[in-house]
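1st attempt posting a full record on here, be nice pls
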Amino acid sequence: MWEYTDKVKDHFLNPRNVGEIDKPSGVGEVGSLACGDALTFYFKLGEDGRIAEAKFKTFGCASAIASSSALTEMVLGKTLEEAAKITNEDLAEYLGGLPKEKMHCSVMGREALEAAIANYSGLPLPMAQGEVVCECFGVTDLEIRRAIQESNLRTVEEVTNFTKAGGGCGNCHERIEELIREVRRESRVEEAARLRPKRLTTIQKIKMIEDVLEREIRPALRKDGGDIELIDVDGNFVLVSLRGACVSCAASQATLKEYVEKKLREQVLDTLVVEEDKP
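the predicted structure (as C-alpha cells):
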C-alpha cells in the first residue's frame, strides 16, 4: 500500500481539467496502455501567448492521475518558455511528494508537456531521438541520462522508479548501470572543471598533473606492464617519459594523445599538449 499525501489523494479523487480541448494549440501523448500508463495532455494558448486552457486524459494509477491533474493546474497562465521549465521534481513537490516507486508518474507528466510543446512548435521531441535502452517501456538513453543527472540517481532500481526503464524483462540492467557510471564520471569531470582555478601557476599545474597521473593514468598503464613519469612542464607543454611495456608498444603515441593528453585536458587544463621525452 503506497503512502500518499492529502494533495495526491485530492487530485486523484477530484482530478482537475479532465477531458479534451477542441482545436488545441498542442497535444502530447506519452506512455502506452501496454506499458500500464498512458497520458494525453492538451493545451490552448490565449491571445496573450499564455496557456489559457489545459486538459488531460490518463490511464494509470492514482499517482499518474494526480500528476496529470497537477500539471494542468501548474501550467495555466504560463508562457510556453515558463511551462517548459517545469520538472518532474516540481510536479512531485507541488503534490507534497510521491512514493519513490511512483516518481515515474511525475516524469510522464513532464514528458507529456514537452511533447505537447514540441507538437505546437513543429519540432522533434529531443528525448525521443536517443537510443532505445529499455525495449519493454520504450525508454531512451537520453531520458535515463537526464533522470540520473537531475535526480542524482545511483542504482538501477532508482532509475526504474523514475523512468520505468529496467522494470520489465531486465535485459537492459547492464546498459543502465553503464549509463549511471558514465553520467557520474562526467559529473565529476564537470565539477573538477568548475572548481579548477582559471589561471594556474606552474606549481599548481605540476601538482594537478601529478595527481591525475598517480590516481588514474599510472594504474591503467601498470595493468599492461607499462608506466609513465613526468619529466617537465613548460607552459602548456607536458613532457613525459614512458616506461616498461609502453616503451616498445606500437600504440604508444596513441596512448599519449588519446589517453594521457585527453585525461590531463579534462582534469587539469584543456590547452595542455603532451609530448614524449625521447633519448
